[in-house]
Structure formats: C-alpha cells, structure tokens
C-alpha cells in the first residue's frame, strides 16, 4: 500500500518558516495596464462570449456575468461576501423546465456549462480588476450601496425584504 504524499513530506526544520501558515497579503495597486494587457483583456472577453454564445441566450449570458462579477468582487475584496441564499436564487433561474423534460444528457450538459461559465466569468472579473483593488473594491461597494438588497448578491447586515 502506498503512503500518502503528505505523510512522505519531511518534518519542518527549525528556523524554517512554514509559509502555509502565513496570511496572504493582496496587492492593492500594480503598475497601469500595458497596451498588450488591454488587448489580452479584450481578446479574453471575446473568447468568454464565444464560449457562452452557443449555449446561452444574451440575457442568460448577462446573468452569468452578473454572478461572476459578484463572485470575483467577493474574492478580491476582503469586506464583500456573496450571500449563499441570493446566489442559490440567481442560479435557480437556469434550472431546466420540467415540461417538456430535457433528458439526463442535456440537463447534465447545461449544468456543466453553467458551472464552467460562472467560473470563467469569475476569473475574467478577477483577472481584469486585480491591478487596482482599492478602486475596484470601492466601485463594488458603491454598486452594492446603490442597489436594493434584493438586487445584488452580496451579504448584507439586514436581510432583503
């Protein structure tokens, strides 16, 4: 029987810092985006839409990007958190209709694409905004404040009506 990899790892040596225990500091501001990075962001946007277009309507793509934006903001901004009940409600609109039944294969296809596309949209938001977290997070907080609590997906201290 093989020994698990973690059991094979050597014990920490005195004087060596175990970096897995250290908090991760997020960079707040990086140098401005270069022209190549701006082009890459544009091409990533086209690729993201190209992946989603064959499966989803424009309205559904908008909802997926909306979900991804909230996930990305929550991942990048320490003071924002996605509300799991609101997220469940947002994702529930993608449930296949009961009538007529789509079949197991089509249902699995749509589920897998939804999970993939939300992940891609989340990564797209994070990749496009990590350079200036203070500006992005301030904009995300302003968006949250401007919306009624039942319109955004962030957790708030007061429950939505």
What is the strand and helix layout of this fold?
Elements: H1 5-8, H2 35-52, H3 58-76, H4 84-92, H5 104-129, H6 133-146
Helix pairs in contact: 2-5, 3-5
Q: Strand content of the residues, in percent?
A: under 5%
**Contiguous helical run count:** 6
Work out the number of β strands: 0
Largest sheet: none
CA radius of gyration? 20 Å
- Look at the helices and sheets and give the structural class: mainly alpha
Listing every helix as H and every strand as E from the N terminus to the C terminus, the arrangement reads HHHHHH
The N- to C-terminal Cα distance equals: 57 Å
Shape: globular
Helix content: 55-70%
The parts where pLDDT drops under 50 for at least 5 residues are none
pLDDT averaged over residues: 84
Task: Explain this structure.
The protein is mainly alpha-helical. The protein has a domain at 58-161. It is built from 6 helices and no strands. The longest helix has 26 residues, at 104-129. It is globular and about 50 Å long. The termini are far apart. The mean pLDDT is 84.
Summarize the structure.
The protein is mainly alpha-helical. The chain is built from six helices and no strands.
């Amino acid at each position: 029987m093989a020994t698990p990899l973690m059991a094979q790892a050597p014990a920490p040596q005195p004087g060596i810092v175990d970096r897995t225990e250290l908090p991760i500091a997020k960079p707040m501001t990086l140098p401005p985006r270069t022209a190549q990075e701006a082009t890459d962001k544009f091409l990533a946007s086209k690729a993201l839409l190209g992946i989603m277009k064959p499966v989803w309507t424009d309205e559904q793509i908008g909802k997926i990007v909306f979900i991804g934006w909230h996930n990305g903001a929550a991942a990048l901004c320490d003071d924002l958190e996605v509300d799991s009940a609101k997220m469940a409600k947002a994702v529930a609109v993608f449930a296949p209709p009961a009538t007529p039944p789509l079949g197991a294969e089509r249902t699995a296809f749509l589920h897998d694409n939804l999970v993939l596309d939300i992940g891609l949209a989340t990564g797209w938001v994070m990749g496009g905004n990590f350079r200036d977290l203070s500006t992005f997070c301030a904009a995300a907080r302003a968006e949250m404040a401007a919306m009624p609590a039942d319109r955004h997906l962030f957790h708030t201290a007061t429950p939505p009506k």
